[in-house]
Amino acid sequence: MSDRPTLRMVAKEAGVSVATVSYVLSGRHRSHTIKDSTADRVREVASRLGYRRNDAARAIRTGKSDLVLLSLNVLADPWSQAVADAVSAAVRPLNKTALIVADGDWRAVLSNRTPDVIFIDGVSRDPAEIAELEAFAAQGVQIVAFSETLEPRGFDVIRSGAEPRCHLAVEHLLAGHDRVGALTSRTSGFARFDAYVNTLKAAGKPLLDDDVVVFEQHPEGAYRAAMTLLSKPDRPTAVYCTTDFAAIAVVRAAHRLRIDVPRDLAVVGVGNTPEGEHLDPSLSTVGPVGFNEALARIMVGRLTDREGAPGEVFDFPWQLIVRESS
Hints:
Blueprint: H1 7-14, H2 18-26, H3 36-49, H4 55-62, E1 67-72, H5 78-91, E2 97-102, H6 106-110, E3 117-120, H7 127-138, E4 142-146, E5 156-159, H8 162-174, E6 180-184, H9 191-202, E7 212-214, H10 219-230, E8 238-241, H11 244-256, E9 266-270, H12 274-277, E10 284-287, H13 291-303, E11 313-315, E12 319-321
Parallel strand pairs: 1-2, 1-3, 3-4, 4-5, 5-11, 6-7, 6-8, 8-9, 9-10
Antiparallel strand pairs: 10-12
């Protein structure tokens, strides 16, 4: 360990100050004031000497881990994948590494390490969980939380107005179809499914048990549910899905069963994911526009100029986006 190259050794060999070496190798913004030739020389010397940054020591000294934590409930959901891709790409130039955890397991991670910033895609209404979130924020953890009801208390809150907008998808399908089925992950206490039920009722349409299929929250489960619904001899001619990945599963199941979309079957999802947009046919959906890029900017802001800010609400209203599938 005593032979391990240090910043001072790199600085001496490159003929620059220790601060210059630190700026160049950390990738901090101030490094742009250093000449490219000097930065190249520092990197060459660091590589030749085998210098490696001591992240453990740096974390103790600065309180920074260079980790960006993404707590995503369903990793297989295209929405989660798009969020991970956008945030990872945005923080990479800042020499940050995105760490992704599933099933909302952010509390277990925060008990062992302190990320520089964390995004939580769903916070329950459990007072104990909210209190824990506030406690972490009070300790200086930079947090961005997705919640329709939470108030910012030392952390940012993202709201989408998603649930009230889901009725637009059902209304859109009812405009051209007498029977609209549904693929949903659950039927009880789920606003996205409630939008389906309430919109049918408002239109004077019956809620038929055979037109509703519940899927397991992963693409394979959604595909099986879609095959079940579409294989029925008296299937609906339109399907509302409570996630985009379920709607994508319906389109793929329709292809397998030789059902033409949208001529013989109209499909609308929820989420506005890139995968749905690039599907053939492109997927109609309800969701925010430009959300992933905006979230990435908010996360980067928390890492830089907004570190320690008291917290604010960022609102991303959802809208109906009509594409080829409907």
